[in-house]
Amino acid sequence: MVKKIISVDPKKLPWEQEIPLHNRWHPSIPPVATIEEGEVVRVECVDWTGGQIHNNDSSDDIKNVDLSQVHYLSGPFAIPTAQPGDLLKVELLNLGCLDGDEWGFTGTFAKENGGGFLTDHYPCASKACWDLDGIYCSSRHIPGVKFAGLIHPGLIGTAPSHELLKMWNERESALCDEEGTPAEKTLCGCLSTRPLACLPEPKGAMLGQLGHFKDKQGKDEAWDEVAKEAARTVPGRENGGNCDIKNLSRGSSVYFPVFIPGANLSMGDMHFSQGDGEVSFCGAIEMSGFLDIRCTVIKGGMKLLPVVGPSPLSVNPIFEIGPLEPRYSEWLVFEGVSVDEKGVQHYLDATIAYKRAVLNCIKYLAKFGYTEEQVYLMLSCIPCEGRISGIVDVPNACATLAIPLAIFDRDVRPPTTMDKLEQLASGLRVLNKNVCMSSEGGAVPNDPRLG
């Protein structure tokens, strides 16, 4: 029997769980449990929004989601033998859905509330709900598609030190300060996701045993001090965090740098399946779930991680991918180069190239009867493979996106005649193929559960 160190109830509010959750990074958030080296433990997690999204046919919950609260994480967990400068090996032994909660969702945020990779093309919120049946999933909102999942944590990492936290906040604040000035990064004009970085924000903060903003903000000086500098969990950083590596499933190991005594490991954002890039932002099949893990400390092992940057803390984890993944033998591959939609040439820009590859795929599959919004959602969560295929042939970077043909109930390769294409498309139109779409504009971030 695996030792369970944290249980969650998806029907309860995140701040009402028996063991407190947290949604910020800060070294002062105390551990909620201890994991001894070598022992196998089970960690349960709520979905990343803390239950704000519902299994229904409306995308209003996605449109008006309160993103100040994300991501809800289980932990921190202290490993007593871990000290700064060590390397923490975390083995993922088993992962799965929580009993009685076998469903998930994929969404696109409204342009005015989070947006996504292709917000300039698809500004409205949308949602697809998925039934999780063993290793397979299907959706009433995207018919004609079925595939095996590869369950993984989108987010897992160790706590930062005060020094590292200061580095994060300074560099991300500087990025936001550049917006609208001559120093603004080139990509800011090509991608519409805003804000450019999610800076510390006391509103929405859940700081584990330190408490929830609803009860503590403005009433507890110590809480306010932590909340005003606690880092948001949105990006991946030196501690790991929200890296969204879809192959990080059973049999995988992660080697995390340790920045504070005990390491303070946290995890969450469980995914049933994800496409490379998670392009719609809320784009995997998001779910509640569990992980069975084992931890080992490599004393002084952090020196194995290459330092690339101005500080000895400028390191990144190493991921050892497990042997299990869905097997596909036939793929359709879409190419993109670093020329944007306006025909402007960019210099070896892999982001622009990948955006073009994704758009090419969306507009191609839409010819087979899907809406472009359906394909956008699909590419965020199916087991598609994104690659940087060329990064030296000036001026164009080349990116590719490969989709497995076997997930479709019809042949989506170019047909021999255009008449056949029309027949395939019309065959899909007789089904209920509308994703949950919202109207454009008017998003008001709000969680009515807060009262």
Terminal CA distance: 40 Å
Total of helices: 7
Label the structural class: alpha+beta
Strand line-up in the sheet with most strands: 1-4-18-6-15-19
Q: Write the element-wise H/E pattern from the N-terminal end onward.
A: EEEEHEEEEEEEHHHEEEEEEEEEHHEEHE
Work out the helicity level: 10-25%
Number of strands: 23
What would a concise description of this structure say?
The protein has 7 helices and 23 strands.
What does this structure look like?
It is globular and about 65 Å long. The chain has a 6-stranded mixed β-sheet with strand order 1-4-18-6-15-19, with no helix packed on it. The chain has a 6-stranded mixed β-sheet with strand order 3-5-16-11-14-13, with no helix packed on it. α5 crosses α6 (372-381). It is an alpha+beta fold. It is built from 7 helices and 23 strands. A hairpin with a 2-residue loop joins β13 and β14. The two termini are 40 Å apart. The model has no long low-confidence stretch (mean pLDDT 95).
